[in-house]
Amino acid sequence: MTIEVLPEPAGLPDPLPEPAVGELRLETVLSALSDPLRLRIVRKLLLESEDFDHTCGWFGLDRPKSSLTHHFRALREAGVTRQRQYGLERRSHVRVADLNARFPGLLDLVAAWTPADGD
Amino acid sequence: MTIEVLPEPAGLPDPLPEPAVGELRLETVLSALSDPLRLRIVRKLLLESEDFDHTCGWFGLDRPKSSLTHHFRALREAGVTRQRQYGLERRSHVRVADLNARFPGLLDLVAAWTPADGD
DNA sequence: CATGCAGTACGATCGGAGTCGTACAAGAAG
DNA sequence: CTTCTTGTACGACTCCGATCGTACTGCATG
Fold it and tell me: Please, what CATH class does the domain formed by A21-112 belong to?
């Protein structure tokens, strides 16, 4: 155990590359959210995350790892989630404040969403 | 001129096939709205339609007719717009009440949207 | 160092969506 | 009837995204 440099006030690692708040585009965000699996990811984060970041494994998604990488990157690059590297884990949370500022009401729709059978 | 059967109280033609309110799916609607051209169509209808139905031509979109057919059908089949046949014209309007009932706040986001340069 | 684990990178495949040209259908108007 | 107009139908092309297997990187732990 070594003493670590603290890159942020709370000692968090830097976020992975993501669009700034002003760069968020509605069409890009809607496209990211138009996939049922990603909708499920975001909804679970909104309803059950309890303000923690979570790894891919936490979601219990029955997909190969390479598929999950694809979807989590899609969400991050659209600006829906933020990802940080904690050791060998990459944890995600929804950018609630940013999204509510730019697209008020959108996350409420996601939280209220119910998956179709099979999703 | 023959005496016509009136299919609706106001004497409007029947709507073209579309999903019922209860069949509207968030992921389908978001997918339909994730295209900049369709976002432009819906936004223009919301801001400038003055409660009238409008033909493809009214939008002044610089695309071939077959492309417009494609996008207007995508909007209708997702449940975003309703289309009726008036003679040889096919006019569209946004299903405001249905969408507000199922996805409150969504149309506000579309109305507030601003196209990127080039859209 | 050796092993195990989280996740990425790369590349292949596949299907679906956007784009459009052309031909066609149907109502409107002369 | 002939012509014009609005829009569809069909098909081709292209591109992107979803899916996944395999190989790899990087950290952690014994």
Answer: mainly alpha
